[in-house]
Write a structure and sequence with these properties.
13 helices, two-stranded antiparallel sheet, mainly alpha, globular
């Protein structure tokens, strides 16, 4: 997708989303807002997993760092939530840089295990600490706007999602993005050509962490309550499922996966405890029969149609 095509495609979709408050009620707007949050999370996780081939299980933890940093600053120090979110993004980026420098030399399964341990340690600390995080009760935080409005939050999340997608798009379509691909395909060959393999991985990890911190901060102030659920492994595996089902390594795939799974989860929630089982079966079925995700399936269909038209 060329730069011009990307922006020409992005603008009408953005305008369409901005019109949604005219036709949707508050509940459906809430579903769209949560979907946008997951689109930000899945797209930023795809930056590290889909473009450099490094599987991290700490992405939800970085969202939690962004959320709790902003929330604690707002509650304990009276910091404006917008400024708090900015500080939360920086905190997530700095911690992402530190974890990346320590872990990315190992790569592969060692990176996955290390980030899994980091995520669990952070979750345990947040859950058992009470003075600052309020433990499992959750931290009540102020909103981003004076008068709570789903429509206003929708516009905020649309703006944040557009910023996230533009940052990721420009990054993966630059020389740095070429280095991402080179490291993913063959890191030894990339290194022999002068690519700083560790530096490339750390950069992707840091940017990915910062974007997760942004998503987490906005999400916490939207809910007005920050709980240990945000940096939990449940959230991490949900983001992973959205990316894989939508299409790992595809720019559009994580966005599609986020909306499809969030809407699907709302529909099957009516089946009570069985909705988790149904959700897992759908995810397993997609992973088994369509490894390139929904976007790969659409691409495959288009290719088949092109061959049919060529033969006709």
């Amino acid at each position: 997708m060329k730069n011009k095509t990307f922006y020409v495609t992005l603008l009408p979709f953005t305008a369409l989303f901005c019109l949604l408050p005219l036709v949707l009620d508050d509940y459906k707007l809430h579903v769209v807002i949560v979907s946008l949050f997951y689109a930000m999370m899945a797209s930023s996780w795809n930056l590290i997993a889909g473009y450099t081939g490094q599987v991290s299980f700490a992405h939800a933890a970085f969202a939690g760092i962004g959320a709790y940093t902003s929330g604690i600053l707002a509650v304990k120090a009276g910091v404006n939530p917008w400024i708090g979110i900015g500080i939360g993004v920086v905190a997530a980026a700095v911690l992402g840089l530190a974890v990346g420098v320590l872990c990315l030399r190992m790569g592969g399964i060692y990176l996955s295990l290390t980030t899994l341990g980091f995520s669990e340690i952070l979750h345990i600390i947040i859950t058992n600490e009470y003075e600052f995080t309020r433990g499992t009760m959750g931290l009540q935080v102020p909103g981003l706007i004076t008068h709570y409005s789903k429509s206003a939050y929708l516009y905020i999340f649309i703006a944040a999602t557009v910023i996230t997608l533009v940052v990721i798009y420009r990054l993966i379509h630059s020389n740095i993005g070429l280095n991402f691909r080179a490291v993913q395909n063959d890191e030894r060959a990339a290194s022999s050509l002068g690519v700083n393999v560790i530096g490339v991985r750390v950069l992707a990890f840091t940017v990915s962490s910062a974007l997760a911190g942004l998503a987490g901060g906005l999400y916490g102030h939207y809910l007005l309550l920050i709980t240990p659920e945000i940096p939990s492994l449940n959230q991490q595996f949900l983001v992973l499922s959205m990316t894989v089902i939508g299409g790992l390594g595809s720019f559009v795939g994580p966005i599609v996966g986020a909306f499809v799974l969030e809407v699907l989860s709302e529909y099957i929630r009516a089946y009570g405890e069985y909705h988790v089982l149904v959700f897992g079966l759908v995810a397993l079925g997609m992973a088994r029969f369509f490894p390139k995700g929904l976007t790969g399936l659409v691409q495959q269909y288009k290719t088949r149609q092109t061959h049919v038209m060529g033969e006709a």
